Amino acid sequence: MRKAASSAAVGNKALWQEAADRLLARFTQRAPAMKDVVLAFRRVPDDDEHALQREAVTCLLRLYYEVTPVQALEEQVDVSTALAAALTWSEGEAEVSGLIALRALELEHILVVAQHSTGMRWSGKSSGLQYSPIISLLRLHMKDLQNRKIRSLIGQVLEQHGLLVDNAGVDAPLRSTGELTELEALVASLTSSNGEDSETWAFIDDCVARASRQPVKYADQIDAAAAEPHNGGFGCSTALPGLLAAAVAEQAHFVAKKPGVMGFVDKFHGLLSYGTLPSRVAVLVYENVRGLAGRSELEDYDENALIKKTRLVKPQGTNSSGTQIIEKPSLPFIAPPPESDNHPELLRWAQKDLASALEDGDINALILCLCSQHPEIRRQALSQLRILFAKLQASTLEDKGHLSVLIGSLTETFEQQCLQLEDKPLPYLTATFAARALHVLMEPAHFMYPKLNRFIMRSPEWRITRLPSYWLSNTTLSQPEEDDAYWKEVLWVIEWLVDGLRLISCGEGMTGVLEWLGMVEGKIEMAGLVRERVLGSCDGIKVARWSGVGVETL
C-alpha cells in the first residue's frame, strides 16, 4: 500500500510539473519579447519624476530573469550604467523622502539583474562611480549591516571570483563567536572605515581588482605560503584563504606608512586567523603583515565585539541558553512612503492624451491626491478631476460613459462627505477602491466588471462607511458572475482592503471590516494581524462610538 501511495505521489508530482511547464510555455509565447522590455528599460529617464516608472520596469526586467530565464538570456542586457547611477544615488542624500523606498527597490531589482548578467564587471570601474560596483555595494552595506540580501550578493560575487571562501555561513544556523567566515571578517574589519576614509576604500578596491585580474598569481602565493614550514601549526587547519587575503598581504608593503589603511589590514588578517580552528596559512600571513607596522601605530580592538556588531541576527532560532526564539509574525506589506511636498501628478495627466494617462496610472495618482493632508492639494485635485470628467464625456473612448460616471461619483462623494462637512481628506481606502475600479471598468472582460458596473450605476454618491461591508457581502456571501470566479472576486476585495488599510487616519468606515475580521479570525491566515493593524492605526474612541461597544471590548 505504501509503495502504491509513493508511486501515486511521484506520478502526481510529475503531472503537476508537466502542467507548470505547459503554463510557462504558453505564458512565454504571449509575453512581450525580452528585447522590448530592454528597450522600455533604456527609454525611461533616470530622474526623480520617473522614479515610479523606473522601479516598475526594472522589476519587470528582474521577473524575466527569475520566471522565464531562458527567454531572458535571449537578449544581452548591460545594466552597468544603471547600476552605477543607482549606487551613486544611494550614496547621496535624498531630497524627497518618498523617493527613498522607490530608489531602494530599483537598486534591489538592478542588483538581481546584474547578478544574472554574465558580462557584468563587478571589479571594474564604472563611469560616475568613485569605486568599482562591488566596493560601492560594500560601502552601501556598511550603512545597514543587517541587510541580508546585499550581504548575500556581496558574498556570492566575491566567492564566484575566488576572492573569499567559506561564504556558505552567511545564512547558516547560529555559530559560536569564535567561528566566522571570511565575509564576516571583511565586514567586521571595516566597521571603523566610514565613507570619508577614501584611502582605505581605494586600497581595498585596488586589491579586489588585482586579485580579479591575476588570480593565478595570488593562488601561487597562497600555495607557496602553505608549503613554508611553520612551528605554530598546532591547532590550525589546512584550509586555504581566498585570493583577497593574498592581495591585501602583498599590497600592505606599499601602505605601511598609512595608519588608517594598516588598521584595516591588521583587523582583516587578524580576524582571518582568529577562531577555534583558523587557517595555518592565514596565521602565517598575519604574522608577516603585523611586522610591517609598529605595534604602537595599530589600534587595539576586541574581536568578539566586532563580530557581534556585524554578524547577522537570526530572526528565528535559539538563544544562548537553548530557549527557542519565535519571531512575531508580521503583515506582508509596508505603509506607503510619507507624503511629498511636491505633487506633479496634479498636472501630469493633462500633458498626455487621455488613453495614455489612464494606462500609465496618472489618473490613479491624481485620485490619491484627494487623500492629501494639505487642503489646497485636495482642492486642486478635485478641480483637476472635474476637468477630467468633462474631457471623458467629450472623448471618443469606448468606455467613456462608465469611466465618467465613476469619476463623477468619486467627486460627488468627496464634496458631500469630506469637503463640505469637515474639510477632511478622502479615506485612503475609498481612494484605492476608485483607482482599482477605474482599471476594471477599462476591461469589459474583467471578472469584476459586471458587479462594479452595477455598483456605480445604482447611486451618484458612495456611502464611505458602507464600502467595506458592501463589497464583503457582495463577494463572500454572493454568487459570482462567472462559475469559476468566486475566489477571484474575494481575492480582489481582500487585496483592495489590504492596500487601503495601509494608511488609516481614523476609524471611519472600519467597523464593518473589524466585524468581518473578528468572525474569520482563526480561520483565515493573518486575519488577526490585519485586525490588530486596523485597531492600532485607528482612533479607538471613535471606533467604539461607531460600533456601539466599549474600547476595552475592541
UniProtKB/TrEMBL annotation:
Classification via Pfam families: HEAT_URB1, NopRA1
Domain URB1 C-terminal span(s) in chain numbering: 364-505
Signal sequence interval, chain numbering: none
InterPro entries the UniProt entry points to: ARM-type_fold, HEAT_URB1, URB1, URB1_C
A single cellular component GO annotation: nucleolus
All copies of domain URB1 central HEAT repeat, residue ranges: 117-258
Protein name from the UniProt record: Uncharacterized protein
GO biological process, one term: maturation of LSU-rRNA from tricistronic rRNA transcript (SSU-rRNA, 5.8S rRNA, LSU-rRNA)
